[in-house]
Design goal:
alpha/beta; 2 domains; 11 helices
Length: 330
């Protein structure tokens, strides 16, 4: 009988310790990844900041950011369920969902939206001594259109098409990340590169500190042609002084960077992610967007007011629940 009382007491103590320890004891943490882009662009640092902020807000979820080949490649990862979420351009997300352009015959029907983050600017960067003053001057030059499978390459091809040009119009074409392209320009092994990213872009900033560069303008007539062909673009002006030695305003076009997710990710997870992106809770008492705005210049453009701008794909039900609660959608 005495042994029985001791056993019951031990069981009671164990039960009490479990209650007071809370659900964290023995609980497995969930893992959630964000595919970003090359290390010289904006996706990579901003994605890292977002991942860290979300991990702090949601202690039962470990969020990581992974470098990658950006928009097109990231959409392919979503289609194959190889990543939970990704940063992509809105035009690429639309093409992926609808099975058009480079996704013709192979759509990404499981891609869903969480939020539009910030405008992405198409920046055409050339060596100052390459003799490139206007867009038409790039013909016959050594071109880097971005990395293969990136949103930057999509933008390059769209702009060239609007002018009736193709890769065949260039002396040489090579595919590299932002950092690789900048190094080629610095080493005088390339003349011009395209770069779609938030302003300022670190790879261009670094290049401008060691080399004389120009940002090639897209004139009004060409902008009109591009927007007519691809209405998801809009006109944008890169302000003078954005990069060392570039002292004039430069007209160009822009898209929106979006955070997208695999449709199979549970709604409660996406809802909590969306809320943590925009709302202050936990410790520190800052939203992920607040933290991005503090740490990265482009983070200041990540706002709830523009969260649905350019959202041409269906929202994930978890994200839709949050925006419905905020009165932003019906």
């Amino acid at each position: 009988m005495k042994k029985r009382h001791v056993l019951l007491a031990i069981i009671a103590l164990v039960a009490i310790s479990v209650v007071f320890a809370g659900p964290a004891v023995g609980a497995k943490k969930k893992f959630f990844a964000i595919a970003t882009g090359g290390t010289g662009g904006t996706y990579y640092p901003l994605g890292g900041i977002l991942a860290q902020a979300l991990s702090t807000q949601l202690p039962d979820i470990i969020v990581t950011a992974q470098s990658g080949n950006a928009s097109v490649a990231n959409c392919n990862l979503i289609r194959e369920h190889e990543i939970e979420s990704a940063f992509v351009q809105n035009n690429v997300a639309y093409a992926a969902y609808t099975g058009t352009a480079q996704f013709e015959g192979n759509p990404v029907k499981n891609i869903r939206g969480i939020a539009s983050l910030y405008p992405e600017t198409i920046q055409i960067v050339a060596r100052a001594d390459a003799g490139i003053k206007t867009f038409i001057d790039i013909k016959g030059k050594r071109l880097i259109p971005g990395d293969r499978g990136s949103g930057t390459e999509v933008d390059t091809l769209n702009i060239l098409k609007a002018l009736g040009m193709s890769y065949e119009d260039f002396k040489n074409v090579d595919w590299l990340s932002f950092s690789g392209a900048s190094q080629r320009l610095k080493d005088r092994q390339a003349d011009v590169t395209f770069n779609t990213a938030g302003l300022p872009t670190s790879a261009i900033t670094e290049l401008a500190t060691t080399s004389d560069i120009v940002i090639v303008p897209i004139d009004e007539a060409l902008i009109a042609k591009i927007v007519k062909l691809y209405p998801f673009y809009s006109k944008f002006v890169i302000p003078a002084g954005m990069y060392k030695g570039v002292d004039v305003d430069t007209p160009t076009i822009t898209t929106m960077a979006q955070w997208v997710v695999d449709a199979r990710v549970p709604s409660d997870v996406v809802y909590r992610m969306t809320r943590a992106l925009w709302e202050k809770e936990g410790k520190p008492a800052e939203s992920a967007a607040d933290i991005m705005a503090k740490v990265h210049a482009k983070g200041k453009d990540v706002t709830l007011e523009t969260a649905l701008d350019g959202m041409a794909i269906p929202l994930h039900p978890g994200a839709a629940q949050y925006y419905r609660e905020k009165g932003m959608i019906e």
